[in-house]
Amino acid sequence: MKLIGLLLASLLFVSICSAKVGKLQRANGLSKDDFSTVLEHCEANLPKVWDTLTSIRENGVNVRLTPERKMGPGKASGTDQIVISTFFLTKDLPKFPEDRLVIVLLHEFGHILFNRETDRSQRNPVKHEFFAFAYSIKAAIKLAENSDSGPLQEVVKNVKIRNETGKPKDPHTIAIKELIKTPLWTTATEMLEGN
Ligand SMILES: [Zn+2]
After folding, report:
1. Ligand 1 centroid vs 130 CA: distance in angstroms?
2. Closest listed residue to residue 133, CA positions, set 168, 165, 108, 166
3. Mean pLDDT to the nearest integer, 63-91
4. Which of 40, 119, 129, 155 is most solvent-facing, going by the fewest CB within 10 Å?
């Protein structure tokens, strides 16, 4: 599993030299003991998640853990903050296997990159989601090219599901409808068919 860490560090990320390593932080409502337990759980049982988190932090992003679950598995804000729900990290949910959690982290990092690379006038919720989904797919393709197709399988599966079942006015759904018309999507799905 060290391999994925090296790959993530070398392939995915763009601004390592300028960034200072982001902190792992504890949200209000998460005890110090629970914080330690969650970190130990991730490091021991979710090595891909752990390596992805490390690579994202090495790009200057602070990662805050919260026991809040209503917000969903993850949420990015600004240019250096991601919040992750400990519920999704620790509960062994059938719909959120480790490979999907990796995609969640990459998606949220995509939002951070979009905020870093654009100014406010270039952003809207659909463009934000499009960039984040596309970023996670590109990163998953690189992992698949280097012998781990698990994250790519998860992102393709879940994009297809959201395309079918997402609320039509939800920016995620609108972005997905655009994304599946792109060459990137064709590449992603063909890679899996070739497996
Ligand atoms: Zn998003």
Report:
1. 8
2. 108
3. 95
4. 119
> Rounded distance, CA 1 to CA 47, Å?
6
Task: Please give the distance, rounded to the nearest whole angstrom, from the Cα atom of residue 105 to the centre of ligand 1.
Answer: 10
Number of domains in the chain: 1
Q: Residue 69 to residues 85, 88, 120, 186: CA-CA distances in angstroms?
A: 6, 8, 28, 33
Give the whole-angstrom CA distance, residue 42 versus residue 47.
7
Determine the Cα–Cα distance for residues 175 and 179; give it in Å rounded to an integer.
Answer: 6
74's CB contacts (< 8 A; 6+ apart) are 82, 83, 84, 85, 88, 104, 105, 107, 108
**If you measure from the C-alpha of residue 128 to the centroid of ligand 1, how many angstroms do you get, rounded to a whole number?**
7
Mean per-residue pLDDT over the chain, rounded: 92
CA 128 – CA 12 distance, rounded (Å): 18
Q: Is the dihedral of CA 105, 4, 57, 17 positive or negative?
A: negative
Q: Which domain holds residue 96?
A: 2-193
Give, in order, the Cα–Cα distances in Å from 11 to each of 16, 57, 107. 11, 15, 16
pLDDT tens track for 5-59: 656 666 665 555 556 899 999 999 999 999 999 999 999 999 999 999 999 999 9
120 CA from centroid of ligand 1 (Å):
16
**47 and 78 Cβ atoms separated by less than 8 Å:** no
Task: For helices 150-165 and 98-117, give the axis angle rounded to 10 degrees.
Answer: 80
